[in-house]
Known about the structure:
Layout: H1 2-26, H2 30-45, E1 50-51, E2 58-63, E3 75-84, E4 90-91, E5 100-104, H3 112-116, H4 129-137, E6 142-148, E7 168-174, H5 180-194, E8 203-204, E9 210-215, E10 227-236, E11 241-244, E12 250-253, H6 259-264, E13 273-278, E14 305-315
Antiparallel strand pairs: 1-2, 2-6, 3-4, 3-5, 3-7, 6-7, 8-9, 9-13, 10-11, 10-12, 10-14, 13-14
Amino acid sequence: MRKFLGQPFLVGLAAILAFSSCEKKEYQTVTELDEQNIQQYIRQNNLDVEPLGTTGMYYQVLDQGDGVALAYDQIVPLVYSFKTLDGNYSSADTFNVSNRYADFLGYFPYGSAVASNNPGSPLDKEEGMKVALNQALKFANGKIRILVPSRLAYGKNGSGDIGSNQSLDYTIHAIDPDHMPAYEDQSIQQYLDKTGTPASSFLKTESGIYYHIAEPGTGTQITPEASLKVGYTLRTLNGKILEQSPTDSTTMNLATTISGWKEILPKIKAGGKVRMVIPSTQAYGLKGNVSSTTGVNSIPPFSALDFEVSVKSADNTIN
Length: 319
């Protein structure tokens, strides 16, 4: 009887142990899953990357920078694109709001406004992409590729179209603030050439504005203090229209507008039309003008802007 009872017991115990062993084999931690996905992606794309210490990130310096040191307490303009390793999501438009950053490097990629409202969060720690920028790229005017494990990105919850536990492939260009005029001038020239209106067909001011007067106008000469009725179209350098108004639907005082308008519009008269591509230094600056709620009609950080303006009337009377 004891022998009879013992055999099923041993068989059952062996089955339980085998089942438990299978369960342990199939289970992966998030860290293990991230590493597996990244290694597979590296092999499939034949990438020449190296690990960044024990962070779980991998990097490749594409262009070594020669600008200012990338310190956490420095404001650094960054342009970047990224995609998920599974290829289901890509954010490649570097003239879009979500692909441009101009804040302290120590708060990348969320910004100081978000960080200050989340004390004690991971934003306060030295982790994530800012570590690769600080320790691997080291200097502005360079580019780096960074593979970011999901646990340092959007984690198990994902974000929008980015699914759960998705590691990311970033390409980041850090710009030296002192070299911003040269960077923007090159961007403007490339944009104009692509749109079929080469930069050579525009006049250029000392402040870096490219402009073309389509119609000089025959009415009142515009002064820097004029009250104007205008219609205009505003585009970013990806061709996206941010704002558009009919010919005489907008009334404004030129003295309260951006520097680029103040410089160029006095070159024409009422009834005139002008196109002007304005660098951010003569528009909304390094920070841009981003809505914190809807994002509608927002101006991305350090964005050059393409305006087409027609002036219906001008009143130079100073009240």
